Amino acid sequence: MKRPWLVYGLSFIGGLVVFLIVLSFVLSFLLKFKELDFGRPQIGVLEIKGVIADPEEYLRAIKVFQERENIKGVVVRIDSPGGSVGASQEIFEELKKLRKFKPVVISMGNIAASGGFYISLGGNQTFALPGTLTGSIGVVLQVPNLEKLLKKLGVEAEVVKSGEYKDTGSFYRPLSPKEREYLQEKIKVIHSQFVKAIAEEKKLPETKVREIADGRIFTGEEALKLGLIDRLGGFWDAVDEVKKLAKIKEVKLVYFPEKKRSFWQFLLEEKASLLAEMVYFKPWFFPNY
Fold first, then answer.
1. What's the pLDDT tens digit per position in 131-168?
2. Cβ neighbours of residue 286 under 8 Å, at least 6 residues apart?
3. With contact defined as beta carbons under 8 Å apart, do 42 and 254 qualify?
4. pTM for the full predicted model
5. Dihedral, 73, 54, 196, 112 alpha carbons, nearest 10
6. Pairing of β 42-49 and β 252-256
7. Is residue 94 a contact partner of residue 122, using CB atoms and an 8 Å limit?
8. Comparing C-alpha atoms, which of 51, 48, 25, 66 is closest to residue 257?
9. What is the CA radius of gyration of the chain?
10. Most-buried pick from 24, 88, 218, 279 (CB within 10 A)?
11. CB neighbours (10 Å) of residue 270?
12. Which residues are catalytic?
């Protein structure tokens, strides 16, 4: 028995699906074409936000900035309380390499402390707001000791190791005096690396840097007086400085790390972003006006 309505219905649905797929490809292509903006000078914006742990996406972005000829300079926007030593040092070193080819200007947001401040040393110049929290020049290592809790739970560990310090930091037991001394020496070495980087990049006497490298934080105004930043100003002041150094006027800003999104992902993420902005908590430890 023939059922033409079923054939017509399936054909319509199939055609609609094909149409939507083609439309998605066309719109994605148009968005990408618009982003490329052929021929116009660009300024790359590297956004470093939150705790710095995995540097990979930042390192890839820096490589792109160096290779693209139409990117004439870079603004690094930092809003971070710090992070791991290795990640901060690696981003800092790559920015130093980048600034040999293109101007790199740092813009500090709410906070650029510890590892965030370390990264800022990689720029040609650093801008901060008067109330930016920066500094916190120091290194900290925290080792959890869960021995009492694990004993209550009846959990014990049998350790077989190849050397005296191989299980240093184990949360099954407290540190021994020799282990504490051993870790303290490592902290001193890493702290000295931080101090030397500041002294070298900011042209400050190492003794002066050591006087303030005790972990305290500074406002942007205080950091300017201490020589830890170069100027007070916001993000657009940093953009203008890059334009000045690169001798360009009209530019397009290109943000990294970028996300590869289809047209449909773009629409969904925009909706999600609007919802997120409606329900957020303002960090209690930031000064508010």
1. 999 999 999 998 888 999 999 999 988 899 999 999 99
2. 110, 111, 133
3. yes
4. 0.77
5. 70
6. parallel
7. yes
8. 48
9. 26
10. 88
11. 10
12. 114, 166
